[in-house]
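Intended use. Records like the one below are meant for learning the mapping from a protein sequence to its folded structure. Do not use them to infer anything beyond what is encoded.
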Amino acid sequence: TIIYILGVAAKFLPGEFSMRFLTTDLCFFICSVFIVVCCLIFYYTHRKPKKESAKVFELLLFNMLFTCLASILATGMNPLVSTDGNAFNVAQNFFQTIYFALHTLLAPLFALYVVIVNNWGENRSRRVVLWFLSPALLLELFVLTNPLTHLIFYYQDNVLFTRGPLELFIYAEAAGYIAFAVGQLFTYRRVLVKSTAFALWFFIGASLTGILVQFALPWLKLELFFESISLFGVMLLIEMEDLHADSITGVYNRRTFIADNNRYIRSNRKYSVIVISLSSFKSLRSMFKIEDL
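Structure written out for the chain above:
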């Protein structure tokens, strides 16, 4: 729908302006932003119990949002830059660097999300998380110093985007984290709920499709579009489990307890169960608001 609206709008703009600004890449980036914004609105307006994976999922959403915005700004500078170099060249380099810095963190964040959903165990200390993210953090140093080294990307003649010698390491890093996530899903395939497993496999499949298409066809930038759609699926099937929460209080129901109990047992996690009996629940509902309960 968004692409159709942009196409209609282009008919009312001067021909040169629409051809220079409303490119295919820009349309897909704008679509990606709208998808992520819809995810954020839906996610924060639906009251649900917070899971262990919620914080990482929120990081994924905001990472995707700012990555898409940086891509829009960097792409939008194309008609304004010059071979002699101007302020738009500097701005384009800045936004392109932001794009690479954020997008490099997407695969490790997703792998960390899979680890938490799969219940890796009780040893998820900050030190373990830092060790897990250390390859991505090391690669971040090369990205952030790229304006000086040009190892990730550079603009030939100040206008033509060119891949640097170390850009392949970004693809290798993403492939490594995705391979780790695939291994985790295969190892804990009997632990996960079917809808959760389907959502995670869907994210991996969609992300790999976008990565492979963009790697083979650099002019067709579909990676962010596929990743935003897959995040929407993860949100609906994992973070927004309507069948696993009570419709009145929003608290997890018996079905969730059975699923989590089975997952904890199969993953050898130590845990405790507390049973609380509330008598006269109807009276409590009449005295307090549902939010207070």
